[in-house]
Structures are given as structure tokens and as C-alpha cells.
Amino acid sequence: ASFTGLGLGVFEKKPFLQRVVETYKRVKKDSALLLSACSHLLYNEELMASLAESGFDAVLTDPFLPCGPIVALRLALPVVFFLHSLPCGLDFQGTRCPSPPSYVPRVLSLNSDHMTFLQRVKNMLILVSEGFLCNVVYSPYEPL
């Protein structure tokens, strides 16, 4: 229900600032739910011992959910991400590949590489908001 509400919130006709605040609250709530699930998994010694004894070769995971890489680190296994990009622009940072927002559209912007001035402004706003949302979502995982 939480994720469905987050997805449906995209189509609501509300003022922009109100949608931003409501999306922030939903993301914070949803990330707390995922953090709780990850904590319970990692602190379940019996389950973690069973996973360690199973002899897995790698952990296949979604890069947008940080629990997979954390479990892989705990089990000393390599991680295989099954998406083409990492959250928060980490793929661009890791490869040192330039990604100027004036030319390269953000994934969720639906822009092409031929953007108008307003599309470039929108692209820049998405880039700035990604950093803020990434901090909200991923910083609570640091203690794990």
C-alpha cells in the first residue's frame, strides 16, 4: 500500500510545493520501513548463519535498495546489480564520466538530449533534488 501510494501520488493534481512535501514525507516513511526490514534481516543471527553456510557465489540485488549490498558485505560475497544505473549518480562518479545537466537528461526527467531552456532548468532541479532525497533515503543505513 505504501509503494502504491507513492506511485499514484505522481498523478495527483496538487500544487507543486505541496506535492514535493508530500513526496518527501512518503519517501521518508517508506525508507524507514525498508530500513527496519533490513535491520531485522541483518540481526537475525540464525538466518544470517544459514545464508553464510549455503555457499552462495554472489548476491544479485537492485542497487536502489541498499540492503542487498550490505548483506553481501556481511557475507563477504561480490554484488551483481541488475539495473543499468546506480542511485544518486554513483555510476557517473565511479566512472568519472561527465554528466552535465545542461546536456545529459536525468533518468526520470523524460527529456531527450535536445532540451529547451525550461527543460534544462527542470533537469537541474531534478539533479539537485536527487542529492537531497538520496541523503534522506540512504544516510540511515550508515550504522548497518
From TrEMBL:
For this UniProt entry, the molecular function terms from Gene Ontology, in alphabetical order, are: UDP-glycosyltransferase activity
Q: How does it sit in the membrane?
A: Single-pass membrane protein
Check the record and name the SUPFAM superfamilies matching this protein. UDP-Glycosyltransferase/glycogen phosphorylase
Alphabetized InterPro entries for the sequence:
UDP-glycosyltransferase (IPR050271), UDP_glucos_trans (IPR002213)
Keywords, alphabetical? Glycosyltransferase, Membrane, Transferase, Transmembrane, Transmembrane helix
Q: What GO cellular-component annotations does this UniProt entry give?
A: membrane
Pfam families registered for this protein in UniProt: UDPGT
What subcellular locations does the record give? Membrane
Which coarse location class describes where this protein primarily resides? membrane
Q: Which family does it belong to?
A: Belongs to the UDP-glycosyltransferase family.
Official protein name in the record: UDP-glucuronosyltransferase 1A1
- Which gene codes for it? UGT1A1
